[in-house]
Amino acid sequence: MDGPSENGDAIVGGSIVEGLEYRAGATETVSHELLPAEDPLEPRKRSFDHHMIETGVTMILEGLGLDPDHPRIKDTPTRYARMCDEVFSGLLSDGREAMNRFFDENHNEVVIVRNIPFASVCEHHLVPFIGEAHIAYLPHPDGFITGLSKIARLVDVMARRPSLQERMTREIAEKIEEVLRPQGVLVVVDAEHLCMTMRGVRKPGSVTVTSAARGKMQSDPETRREYMGMLRNP
Ligand SMILES: Nc1nc2c(ncn2[C@@H]2O[C@H](COP(=O)(O)OP(=O)(O)OP(=O)(O)O)[C@@H](O)[C@H]2O)c(=O)[nH]1
Ligand SMILES: [Zn+2]
Questions:
Q1: Most buried by CB count within 10 Å: which residue of 1, 54, 97, 193?
Q2: What is the three-class DSSP state of 186?
Q3: Any known ligand binding at 195?
Q4: Each residue's pLDDT tens digit in the chain (234 positions)?
């Protein structure tokens, strides 16, 4: 069978995956120009508007009755804007760039990367939720895998956005499916939400578990059970 593709961009002799180039038996770093065009429904900015962020933070400080010109906090708005570059960097990326190294290894057994720590921010309260992602994928039958660290990089991209845990979990699974065309992928995420611990219902230690499955992990209950077991009970 030819390489990973669902829509006619088949690999012939291991050379092209829908614009992603790799050589049989070799590792390739794929330049951004080769990646598929961004989804026009999901336009990505190139950078954040620091001026707007700084104005907003200044207003919050004022709203709290603090003096934003006080020496102790006068740099807080610019500091916050700089922090956004880091903690929301996933808004500037579509995730495909995170997986930019592939191996044509004829490996078609499961690959599992477990206990990938992440920190995200809940879109309702803009406070962190922190946890671990666990990922299993069954490569394309021809064996098409990515560098292990690239899976962790993808988690970072999806985490560094204001999000919901369910959406983040789904976005990781969907991106792996899109880029690697695996036979199946299963993503499980455990996280503690600070909006449930430092405020509101105040239940410190409560852990939310979400999963997203695609391909065989979704359609075949036996396969799903097997890989869920590997992710949950190592
Ligand atoms: N499903 C889901 N809910 C989340 C996530 N992060 C935060 N929430 C929830 O979003 C909900 C927002 O509820 P609202 O009633 O609009 O806000 P609220 O008054 O601050 O709610 P409380 O947190 O219950 O005080 C809360 O129940 C949060 O626990 C998430 O990742 N997934
Ligand atoms: Zn929240």
A1: 193
A2: strand
A3: yes
A4: 344 444 333 333 333 333 333 333 333 433 333 334 444 435 456 789 999 999 999 999 999 999 999 999 999 999 999 999 999 999 999 898 898 888 888 888 899 999 999 999 999 999 999 999 999 999 998 888 898 999 999 999 999 999 999 999 999 999 999 999 999 999 999 999 999 999 999 999 999 999 999 999 999 999 999 999 999 876
Q: What are the E-state strand segments in the chain?
A: 16-17, 20-21, 27-29, 101-103, 111-122, 128-138, 145-146, 162-163, 184-193, 208-215
Distance of CA 22 to the CA centre of its chain: 23
Which amino acid is present at 137? Answer: Y
Q: Are residues 213 and 172 in the same domain?
A: yes
Active-site residues: which are they?
A: 122-125, 165, 193, 195
DSSP per-residue letters across 103-142: E-----S-EEEEEEEEEEEETTT--EEEEEEEEEEE--TT
Q: Which domain holds residue 227?
A: 102-232
**CA 68 to ligand 2 center in whole angstroms:** 26
Considering the domain architecture, whether residues 111 and 150 belong to the same structural domain is answered as yes
134 is in an annotated binding site: no
Please tell me the number of the ligand nearest to residue 125's CA: 2
Whole-structure pTM value: 0.83
- Does some domain include residue 144? yes
- Asked whether residue 169 is assigned to any structural domain, the reply reads yes
Which residues have C-beta within 8 Å of that of residue 229, sequence separation ≥ 6? none
Residues 83 and 115 grouped into a single domain: no
